């Protein structure tokens, strides 16, 4: 499965090289033209039966992580966050630094902490990465300032779910890759975007280049099913989420309603929600392009932006089916 391979690759924002190479290789025989811009975004054109309309689907290739900011005299690595990471989730977790150097995120042992330190969330500046170096000289032989850091997590299928790191990007990329194996009525621009986690930077560039008539952005959003059903949030395993609005965009309601009805007719598992706490690339695509209609969808994900996330394989399939439905049907409404 693509999601297994994608998850185990490292693609911290600004360092999506491995992910980009994998995706370009996977789609080289199904896309008619593949280009990468100077930022590293992939824009893959799959020509349809007609070029009268341009349709676009966007997903992000990057994940949150860290970057090395200092090497101490004792050989420990200080770091800064790249994207949003909850420091409560990362202590004692395994990481990979730069060119496959393994390490662990450490902090002062609990019996050495003051009461204030124990009772408050630790600041990232008080954490460090231990790579087993005896001093700065030894550490500098293996890593350097500016090296990226990603979580080191084995990806596995568990029942009907997949567990691993970076499922936020891996799930959506896998869904779009799968959807590209179908022929469509109109030209399709499949956009795999960089630097989503640091402000939708890739989306802002791509929007100008394609100027699509309709755009579907597919991202992920956290579930609330661990608290029980009926809590107003997303449930894992219940299908892709059709998003009416989030922090960045108010989706075109007429088209969103149309897609919801069409998905139900086709038997595609979908949920609908207003995802106001979350960010997508939809706002950047809509604001920076010529007039275009934007829709938004999300795959449910537990424990996103953490060392280990969980996602339903069925939801990834629902997302792929929904992308195909959008590309087949949305032209009727434009």
Explain how this protein is built:
27% of the residues lie in helices and 30% in strands. It is an alpha+beta fold and 334 residues long. It starts with a helix and ends in a 5-residue tail after the last helix. The strands form 3 sheets. The protein has an 8-stranded mixed sheet with strand order 1-2-12-3-13-16-14-15, with helices on both faces. The protein contains 9 helices and 17 strands. The radius of gyration is 21 Å and the shape is globular. The longest helix is centred in the last third of the chain and has 17 residues, at 313-329.
Which helices and strands, and how do they pair?
Blueprint: H1 2-8, H2 17-27, E1 33-36, E2 42-46, E3 50-60, E4 65-71, E5 77-82, E6 94-97, E7 101-106, H3 115-119, E8 128-130, H4 136-140, E9 148-151, E10 156-158, E11 161-164, H5 167-179, E12 186-193, H6 201-210, E13 214-222, E14 240-246, H7 253-266, E15 270-275, H8 282-288, E16 293-301, E17 309-312, H9 313-329
Parallel strand pairs: 3-12, 3-13, 13-16, 14-15
Antiparallel strand pairs: 1-2, 2-12, 4-5, 4-9, 6-7, 6-9, 7-8, 10-11, 11-17, 14-16
Helix pairs in contact: 1-5, 5-9, 6-8
């Amino acid at each position: 499965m693509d999601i297994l391979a994608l998850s185990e690759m490292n693609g911290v924002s600004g360092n999506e090289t491995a992910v980009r190479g994998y995706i370009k290789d996977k789609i080289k025989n199904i896309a008619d033209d593949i280009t990468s811009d100077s930022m590293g975004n992939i824009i893959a054109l799959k020509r349809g039966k007609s070029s009268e309309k341009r349709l676009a689907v966007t997903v992000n290739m990057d994940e949150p992580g860290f970057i090395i900011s200092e090497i101490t005299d004792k050989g420990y690595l200080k770091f800064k966050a790249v994207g949003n990471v909850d420091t409560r989730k990362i202590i004692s977790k395994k990481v990979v630094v730069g060119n496959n150097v393994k390490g662990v995120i450490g902090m002062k042992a609990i019996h050495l902490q003051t009461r204030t330190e124990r009772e408050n969330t630790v600041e990232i500046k008080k954490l460090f990465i231990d790579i087993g170096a005896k001093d700065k000289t030894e550490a500098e032989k293996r890593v350097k300032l500016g090296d990226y850091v990603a979580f080191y997590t084995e990806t596995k299928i568990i029942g009907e779910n997949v567990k691993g790191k970076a499922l936020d990007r891996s799930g959506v990329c896998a869904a779009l890759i799968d959807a590209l194996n179908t022929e469509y009525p109109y030209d399709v621009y499949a956009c795999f975007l960089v630097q989503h986690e640091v402000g939708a930077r890739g989306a802002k560039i791509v929007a100008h280049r394609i100027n699509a008539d309709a755009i579907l952005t597919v991202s992920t959003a956290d579930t609330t099913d661990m608290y029980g059903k009926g809590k107003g949030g997303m449930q894992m395993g219940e299908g892709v989420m059709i998003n009416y609005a989030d922090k960045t965009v108010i989706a075109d309601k007429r088209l969103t309603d149309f897609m919801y009805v069409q998905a139900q007719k086709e038997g595609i598992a979908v949920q609908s929600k207003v995802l106001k706490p979350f960010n997508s690339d939809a706002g950047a695509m809509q604001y920076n392009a010529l007039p275009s209609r934007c829709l938004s969808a999300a795959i449910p994900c537990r424990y996103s932006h953490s060392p280990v996330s969980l996602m339903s394989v069925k939801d990834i399939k629902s997302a792929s089916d929904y992308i195909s439905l959008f590309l087949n049907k949305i032209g009727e409404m434009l």
